[in-house]
Amino acid sequence: MPIQVLFVDDEIPHLMLAEEYLGHSGKVELTCVSSGREAIEALGKKTFQVIVSDYQMQDMDGVALLKYIRKNFGTIPFLLFTGKGKEEVVIEALNHGADYYIRKGSDPVEQFSILEQRIIQVAERQNVQEELVAREKLYNAVLTVQSDLMVDFLPDLTIIRSNESFAGLYGGGPTDMIGRKFLSDLSPEDQEELRGAIHSLSPESAAVELQQTLTTSEGRPLTFSWHIEGVFASGGMLVSCKATGRDISQASVARDGVRQYEEKYQETATDLPRDMGDFDENVPLNFIIENTRPAGTWVLPDLVKQARNSKMNGIASATGQDGHRVFLIFADGEPEGGIYIDRSGVLYGDKSILFLKDSHQFTFYPTAPEIANRFITGCRIYDKSHIRAPNSYAIPEIKAARKGVGNITIDVKRGDKPASGIKITIKSGGKIVGNDITSHTGQISFQLLYGNYIGVVLTEANQLHNFNFQVKSPDSSHAVDLAAI
After folding, report:
1. pLDDT at 38 over 90
2. Is residue 263 located within the same domain as residue 299?
């Protein structure tokens, strides 16, 4: 089914261009209107999945339309057109919930190709987010009535959610379990086995079965068979685990559904840079850094202290001498998100802060709390032990190559010209382990475990082409020529 798009622009030539380049693609179905008031009337008659609006219009500008839609129609994805020199407009739009902006340019082919990509991305993300909410409700309902033991915990075994059956073993309720360590009363040998099992989880091997003995609040030893599944971000990072004790038949459907859509939501989070060259002005994180007045510059320990004392919301950015980039995203004074980018690829969340040093000089760019929380999706920091106490933690110097993990750059061309906007999907063992769209240079990078993979190219003509490649070193590349397909 094509994506239902409401296209708003008071210049008829722009509406005609949209019909020409988007209306015939088969991927979107356009409803074109020439004013903000007409857009509001259309929204009252029909349901749209995405709204694309010009900024400069006579009766109601694009930001005013955005504010009205957010107040009356909720979170429908909204993309804004803006001309050059309108940075303050874009900042205002992002602060009021715009999903993306596209600069109008002289090349309609390139402009509408980018626009179509963004429409598809935000529509998919919205669908996945709505499905995730529904799956979470179902999962929480199962937790409430389930007699099996069900626990969600972080990679360091900190419990973030459990049901009554599990909490009852310790003589408390589910809220009493939050913050405790999962199965902390196991013997040292069993604890070592549990941690080893969690450490072994990967996107290719996402589940493990364990048999463990624990002691109830009444002192009775009980043996449980545990089924533990990992939830992974799109880059392969372990985000959390879902454990079910004893009979898992009634809960399996709900648990699988949540895990599937949590992972899919990670894949559709397009606000974050994906590689060293991904600093496109259309990525809101980069745009805000380039167009926001900085609040100051601090070394890491002083930044953490200043942010906490002032309850700061925003993005802190640092650049190393070798060209690497580090971002810390603060919400209500706490470093909740992290990104580390170097020539080997991108690390998100907990892995990103392993490379932080006290000497890093961070420039802080303030944002609205909603903007900061939006960027945290996909790069959340769970273990803050490395950055929690200024001047009292040791950050390891990690200079050795990450064993077993390599960065592969796929270079897509058509003859001697780079092919941008081409979707590449990476498969291993029949499972999708990554997907993204080539940049303006025709390149795309993935961070993968060493091994053999199948790449799938989706061309502009919606034709699929497979190619094989191997990752066996820290850095490698593979070329794909669309002209030879």
Report:
1. yes
2. no
